[in-house]
């Protein structure tokens, strides 16, 4: 396991060096001073100089059910022991003081805070897991997984799980604890109430079934994001794609899930996928309408191409009075894609030509409607 001053008690490296130098000087002089006031004075000065260091170590253990004042008192006791036992030949004072003071703090928790008897080794394991979780959360900007905690502590994953489970034994709550100001109601009287989680069982089963209908890539991305606590950048690195692409895939999957959850007969997952190369081309021309068929996801990368093709079709429409965009094979559109439609709509209006969108899939239709572009739909929404 790692032994360090730790992130909870960061201090300037110069301060640590000054403290180490002062301790070494004290240890050398203490042997030369006679017993009595001179030696006690030097010892008291050394302890006073190191008090802020001990306080920082104590603050590492705050918010664990023990008053900070008590923890600081325990840390001071450990500091006194460290000063009395310090031997410069064995290394720096600060490293020795960390071990001594931390040991006193852990002993205090073992003796005063565990509501259920737990062996000493397991108590220390639980405290290590709790501390490592806090450190890694700060370093990673997210909750660490079991493997990361195990690697940080140098233990196996089973030990991390054990340490997490033991946290429940840290402070046991009495069933006779009053839960009202008048003391008439006790905690035990509230047990056995209906479990609110039961109402979510059906939804969770439905979500599980729907996720099973998704392609393997989308299933894995959802699992990494919401079960593995991975960031979008980390997911993007795993798949070799951009963070923006991951964001689009998550948005598409979650939108489909929400729609399917509210439907009695969920639609199948769109067969068109991101692997379809986006395209836009004129596929039909008649005296009244020019049809432009668009395929693939219309995102930032494809929006420019789609806009240019729509503008070209409007400009070269011949005598046609309307340009229709077929979206039947468009599974996704983002803000850049909507901007391309707005550019085409403006160009069509300037040319006095009608501009409509046909056969937009449900998800795309909802996105365009939310953005206020439902005026472009040629056909009304299905009832």
Could you explain how this protein is built, in words?
With 383 residues, this protein is of the alpha/beta class. It has 14 helices and 4 strands. The protein has helices spanning 13-30, 37-59, 68-85, 93-112, 120-140, 146-153, 157-166, 201-212, 216-226, 232-239, 243-261, 300-315, 335-351, 362-370; strands spanning 279-285, 289-295, 322-329, 354-358. A 4-stranded mixed β-sheet has the order 1-2-3-4. Helix 5 crosses helix 6, helix 5 (120-140) crosses helix 7 and helix 6 (146-153) crosses helix 7. The protein is elongated. Residues 1-12 have low confidence and may be disordered.
How do you describe this structure in short?
With 383 residues, this protein is of the alpha/beta class.
- Total E-strand runs: 4
Total number of helical segments?
14
Largest sheet: 4 strands, mixed
Helix content: 40-55%
Organism: Pilimelia anulata
GO molecular function, one term: sigma factor activity
Pfam families: Sigma70_r2, Sigma70_r3, Sigma70_r4, STAS_2
Domain STAS: 279-383
